[in-house]
Design goal:
Layout: H1 9-17, E1 22-26, H2 30-39, E2 43-46, H3 50-53, H4 65-78, E3 83-87, H5 97-111, E4 115-119, H6 125-133, E5 138-143, H7 149-152, H8 162-178, E6 182-186, H9 190-199, E7 204-208, E8 216-219, H10 221-224, H11 242-258, H12 273-286
Helix pairs in contact: 2-4, 4-5, 5-6, 6-8, 8-9
Bound molecules: 3-methyl-2-oxobutanoic acid.
3-methyl-2-oxobutanoic acid binds next to strand 6.
């Protein structure tokens, strides 16, 4: 039985008001969601990073709404109480307000999300406004926005120059004014994050590699447990090397099967002697 109370927007704002940082992690599957909910995670993001962590693409662009809905449903089954955020995949909201509302609505209706997240600055304020006016809580995402990585010139810190930093601050205000109840800052310098957090009036500022002075922190689950073999971003802290544990276990399995150390009697099932004798009789009678 899960004793946790459901985390709502009110819970999140009340934590921020008490200066209690909000914990947020990505998640893409049922068993991990169950662990995260049990561990007391406030928020879960089913990120389109699943294109890389789960599906093995090089980036997030090939991820579809169908991929997102399937994984988000599994996460909700495992984590009934965490605040669940569905990440709008590439081209599910960019084309029009209508596409944005429809696809945000799918996350809410088909995967029982609590909110959606979409990437982009002031240009996306109109989409945020349309989605929130449809009654769907929306989170903005500024700084390094992986869906625009080609335009940004690679996975790099955003807002190191004063002009770009000012642009991120203006974008954050525009998204807040459009109705975003939270904004994720990814790879934005810490002092810029601090100013955005101080300027936010009715908006939670979340940090991914953007320093401590935000209302909460997000990490990519696969980075925190060494589960993504291709790279480990600098901003990620490894909280346990599950990837190494799994890899060593796999090598042991291959070895033990080849040497017949596995399986042992405790790993298989037996038939009683009398049933086995009866079976042999049945087979003899057939001959
Ligand atoms: O898809 C995702 O996991 C994200 C994070 C990189 C913030 O959007």
């Amino acid at each position: 039985m899960n004793e946790r109370k459901k985390v709502t927007i009110r819970t999140l704002f009340s934590k921020a008001a008490k200066d209690e940082p909000i914990s947020w992690l990505t998640c893409y599957d049922y068993p991990t969601a169950a662990f995260q909910d049990k561990a007391g995670i406030d928020m879960i993001l089913v990120g389109d990073s699943l294109g890389m962590t789960m599906l093995g693409y090089d980036g997030t662009l090939p991820v579809t709404m169908e991929d997102m809905i399937r994984h988000t449903q599994a996460v909700r089954r495992g984590a009934p109480n965490a605040f669940l955020v569905g990440d709008m995949p590439y081209m599910s909201y960019q084309p029009s307000n209508e596409s944005a509302i429809r696809n945000a609505g799918r996350f809410m209706a088909e995967a029982t999300c609590d909110a959606i997240k979409l990437e982009g600055g002031g240009m996306m304020a109109e989409r945020i406004r349309a989605i929130t006016q449809a009654g769907i809580p929306a989170i903005g995402h500024l700084g390094l926005t992986p869906q625009s990585v080609a335009a940004l010139g690679g996975f790099r810190v955003q807002g190191r120059g004063a002009i770009q930093a000012k642009q991120i601050m203006d974008d954050a205000k525009a998204l807040e004014e459009a109705g975003a109840f939270a904004i994720l800052l990814e790879m934005v310098p810490d002092r810029v994050t601090k100013m955005i957090t101080e300027n936010a009036e009715n908006c939670l500022i979340m940090s991914l590699g953007s320093g401590q002075d935000a209302h909460g922190q997000l990490l990519i689950y696969h980075d925190m447990f060494g589960l993504y073999p291709n790279f480990k971003p600098r901003m990620a802290k490894v909280f346990g090397n599950a990837g190494e544990v799994i890899f060593n276990g796999l090598k042991d399995y291959v070895h033990e099967v080849s040497t017949k150390e596995f399986p042992q009697p405790e790993n298989w099932f037996t038939i009683k002697d009398d049933e086995f004798e009866e079976l042999q009789r049945l087979l003899d009678d057939e001959e």
